[in-house]
Structure formats: C-alpha cells, structure tokens
Amino acid sequence: MMDQWIAMTKVVGFPIMVTLYLLYRIEGKLDELNRSIQELATYSRDYQMIKYHKSSLTFKRVAKKFLY
User: Fold this and answer.
1) pTM for the structure as a whole
2) List of residues 6+ apart from 9 with CB closer than 8 A
3) Rounded to whole angstroms, how far apart are CA atoms 45 and 51?
4) Residues 13/5, Cβ–Cβ less than 8 Å
5) How far apart are CA 10 and CA 67, in angstroms?
6) pLDDT tens, position by position, 4-52
7) How far apart, in whole angstroms, are the C-alpha atoms of residue 66 and residue 56?
C-alpha cells in the first residue's frame, strides 16, 4: 500500500497526493455529517408538529371553556 502511495507521489507530485489523501479521509466524516443533518431536520420537523398540536389543543380547550 505504501509503495503505491510513493509511486503515485513520484508521478503526480506531493501536493496532489496530500490533497487526495485528505479528501479520502474526509469523505467518511462528510457522510456522517450529512446523516446527522438529515436526522436533525427530521427531529426538528417532528418537534414543530408536536408543538403545533399542543398549542392547537390548548386553544381548543380555552375556546371550549368560553364558548360553551
């Protein structure tokens, strides 16, 4: 494995090899970050739905108390 990296460094140059290595390392972290953002969006949407339904129920209780 290391021999391949050294051979590629000779062909394409050190800065390009460092860039490719860093891109390879960060790929997994970007996937995890994307998954976390999607989960956060789901939790946020669910929270907003619960918050809306709770406020709606409270409004209905207050309206029922005063209207009937």
Assistant:
1) 0.46
2) 17
3) 10
4) no
5) 83
6) 877 877 788 888 888 888 888 899 899 999 999 898 888 777 777 666 6
7) 16
DSSP annotation string for 15-64 = HHHHHHHHHHHHHHHHHHHHHHHHHHHHHHHHHHHHHHHHHHHHHHHHHH
Number of continuous H segments (helices) and E segments (strands) in the chain: 2, 0
Nearest to 22 by CA among 30, 10, 12: 30
| Torsion (CA) 34, 38, 43, 45 in degrees, nearest 10 | 140
Cβ distance 20 to 9 under 8 Å?
no
Distance from C-alpha of 63 to C-alpha of 19, rounded to nearest angstrom: 63
Instruction: Give the model confidence (pLDDT) of 51-65 as tens digits.
Output: 666 666 565 665 566
